[in-house]
Amino acid sequence: MGFTQKVTDCVQNAFSKCFGAWTRLVTKRTFIVFALFTALYIYICSGFFSLYKEYDDPQVIWTPAGNPSLANMDRKEALFANSATVRPVSIMVKAKSPDGAENPTVLTMEAFQEMMDWEKVMFNITIHDDAIVTDENEFFYGGEGKIIGLNDMCS
């Protein structure tokens, strides 16, 4: 008999003894087991676990105190309205070197103008609401439905 077989037999015997003892206890002392578990249930429901503190914001729990991300989050909340009418638009940009500068930067006046122009284009795109894309990935513009745009989809 190999080592793994000995370990397997040992574990199976331990579980057999444990559950066998539990079975005998429940069979011989059913009322006592029922009463103990009922008392335990009542104890737990009575507020035993009310000693823990619940946090509304998980950021407070998982981010170390003094972390700059917490200060940034507070600043963001103060600067930007957090309402259902505000929808973020995510974009990816590549840093450009203005006039051959050594350190590329994204935040140039031209970059901001590009972002504003892009946003205008996105919000001016409209389509009929009966337009469809087939299973073969063919697009049909429709033409009889209501004209909708990005503003309609985001509201």
Task: Name the features.
155 residues; mainly alpha; two-stranded antiparallel ribbon; elongated
Give your account of this protein's structure.
- This protein has helices at about 5-30, 30-45, 60, 70-80, 110-125, 150-155, and strands at about 125-130, 130-135, 140, 145-150.
- The chain is mainly α and about 160 residues long.
- The chain has a domain at about 5-50.
- A hairpin with a 5-residue loop joins strand 2 and strand 3 (about 140).
- Helix 1 crosses helix 2.
- About 0% of the residues are buried.
- The model has no long low-confidence stretch (mean pLDDT about 80).
- DSSP strand count: 4
Distance between the termini: 71 Å
Structural class: mainly alpha
Strand order of the largest sheet: 1-4
Quick structural gist:
This protein is mostly helical. The protein is 51% helix and 6% strand.
Would you spell out the secondary-structure blueprint of this structure?
Elements: H1 3-28, H2 30-45, H3 58-62, H4 68-79, H5 109-124, E1 126-128, E2 132-133, E3 139-140, E4 147-149, H6 150-153
Antiparallel strand pairs: 1-4, 2-3
